[in-house]
Design goal:
Alpha-Beta Plaits, 3 domains, 11 helices
Length: about 400
């Protein structure tokens, strides 16, 4: 039975609002707090308070940040290092990193800089880290495997930031919306209804945006925003339950683009580096195939599979890394199989595994590290990890 969360952001979305809604829907506060305790961060506190917003009882996740003794900025690469060093469950760390990668990519595109160089104001960064890791921990507590979101509410006019007066929605939010072609709802208010952090969470992890999926609802939660405007409840609604049994008819495929280039003058090391760089830059997949070019020259085709909006980033990357004189692109339809990330124990060593209906695929790096520590062949560790993952209850 697939566990589903439906996010109704018809009043807007922010990280603290979503965290409050998930706790209101049943996420374990102690588990969320224990996970956040794994962050090597001082100078913050988190409380959950019952409040009213427009007549609706809701949970307000209040992140309080100590503004003393902090540097003025925290670069995205430092956040990546912090998450890597934190004592977090693997699934929580992966979700949080994906969200921050999404946010940094949008901010980097807006400011024309490398995403790793994006700097978040210290207070905002602490707030965002607690919100993002807290949301990831709450989803893990609720065992959510699938997240669907409604169209997101947006205000109008202008909003003030550290960069001055900006359009509302802010440029980073607009970039995030365009990244996934997210449907929006315009609300007649100058308030900034949806923050970059809140939108980045949905863009990074929502399977789709649209109507409520077929599901059996077993809990509902409401997360409060800080403001309490007249005339409408400033809350995010979350419905949690199990997906209805799926039809045998395949779901509509997802449009993707394959970008490729033929190269005959690069080494195997450059090919491997290029593939790794493409994956790090957000490619859904990347690989190389051997070919024979004119005059019998051995060569390779470098491929990258990506979302349509990522072509403008990945095509120049292929050109820069390989020195090729051109690329080509083909639009394809992709039907990815639904899967869940789990972590299993192999003789005292954690190994992450991608688990689908009839397939378990251990993460090579984890399995290799376990094999080296245990002094056992890699194939034995892979087999043990697959067996352990396939034996897990399918609602886990």
């Amino acid at each position: 039975m697939t566990r589903v969360a439906y996010i109704n952001a018809s009043a807007g979305i922010a990280g603290d609002m979503l965290l409050g809604a998930l706790v209101d829907a049943g996420a374990d506060i102690e588990a969320v707090g224990a996970t956040l305790g794994g962050l090597a961060l001082d100078g913050w506190a988190l409380t959950f308070e019952r409040v009213q917003r427009g007549g609706v009882a809701a949970t307000w996740a209040n992140v309080v940040v100590d503004t003393h003794d902090h540097h003025s900025h925290r670069p995205a690469r430092v956040i990546t290092e912090l998450l890597a060093a934190a004592d977090l469950p693997a699934a929580v760390r992966a979700t949080a990193q994906r969200i921050f990668d999404t946010l940094a990519a949008a901010e980097g595109a807006v400011h024309g800089i490398d995403p790793a160089d994006v700097e978040f104001h210290e207070v905002g960064a602490l707030d965002a880290i607690v919100d993002v890791v807290g949301v990831a921990a709450a989803l893990d507590s609720l065992a959510i495997e699938r997240l669907v979101a409604a169209p997101i509410a947006m205000g109008h006019g202008t909003t003030r930031s550290v960069h001055g007066v900006l359009p509302n929605p802010p440029p980073a939010v607009a970039r995030l919306l365009a990244q996934r072609t997210v449907p929006v709802i315009g609300v007649d208010t100058p308030m900034e209804l949806s923050t970059p952090t809140g939108v980045a969470i949905l863009v990074a992890i929502a399977e789709s945006f649209g109507p409520l999926p077929a599901m059996t609802v077993d809990s509902a939660g409401y997360g409060a925003g800080t403001a309490d405007p007249a005339g409408r409840p400033n809350v995010v609604q979350v419905l949690v339950g199990t997906a209805a049994e799926e039809s045998a008819t395949p779901a509509p495929g997802r449009a993707v683009v394959e970008v490729e280039s033929n190269v005959d003058d690069v080494t195997g090391e450059v090919l491997a580096h290029t593939i790794a760089a493409l994956l790090a830059a957000g490619a859904l997949d990347a690989w190389a195939t051997p070919i024979v070019m004119k005059k019998g020259r051995p060569a390779h085709t470098v491929h990258a599979l990506c979302d349509p909006h990522d072509v403008e980033r990945l095509a120049p990357l292929i050109l820069a890394e390989t020195g090729s004189l051109g690329v080509r692109a083909t639009t394809l339809t992709r039907w990815p199989q639904r899967r869940v990330d789990v972590t299993v124990d192999v003789e005292g060593h954690p190994v992450r595994v991608k688990l689908a209906d009839h397939r378990a695929k251990p993460e090579h790096d984890d399995a290799a590290a376990a094999a080296a520590a245990l002094g056992r062949p890699l194939r034995d560790v892979l087999r043990l990890a697959e067996t352990a993952a396939l034996a897990l209850p399918r609602d886990q």
